[in-house]
Amino acid sequence: GQQVMQIPQYQHVQEGEDFTTYCNSSTTLSNIQWYKQRPGGHPVFLIQLVKSGEVKKQKRLTFQFGEAKKNSSLHITATQTTDVGTYFCAGHTGNQFYFGTGTSLTVIP
Amino acid sequence: DVKVTQSSRYLVKRTGEKVFLECVQDMDHENMFWYRQDPGLGLRLIYFSYDVKMKEKGDIPEGYSVSREKKERFSLILESASTNQTSMYLCASSPDRGSYNEQFFGPGTRLTVL
Fold it and tell me: Which of B43, B5, B32 is nearest to A91 (CA)?
């Protein structure tokens, strides 16, 4: 079954609002990666987190890895129309690698 | 700039046909991956290869096989296509042997099986 779940599945926000997607694993992860897939495009790597409690920032994007290494979040401050797409987390556990189910973000101008 | 190319963007096949999906990467990466992407299910790993002639099963290998005769090329084979294999197929590569670090994806092949 699916090892990595993401919520919400869909999110509509007004441009300028914040957005957060959450990723939860049933098992402890060695690392967590985040990818963005624009409509009609392919996933593009954003970042990798490895350490428990790690927080990384990329401009308006903030990524967190939970203390227990079982969950992660991506927060976008003041969304823009260029943020539209589906955001996937992906985790490595043992010999397995699982992508989350994704959160599709729509930004309304 | 890493480039991962896939042989077709769109493919239509009939039930029972043998289907080959080809993927080529030009950055001398050790690892190559095949995923399928379905709405609501995200990306699911079919097979993974960390070296020429080596392969590892992913989450959903049933009904698929793979071939890696050269480092830069990874083929996905559907021995007898079925309608439930209609999907978007994504190939990816990554540099560090045996690791799942940053993956670079190809544009995808949308396969329809009639």
Answer: B43
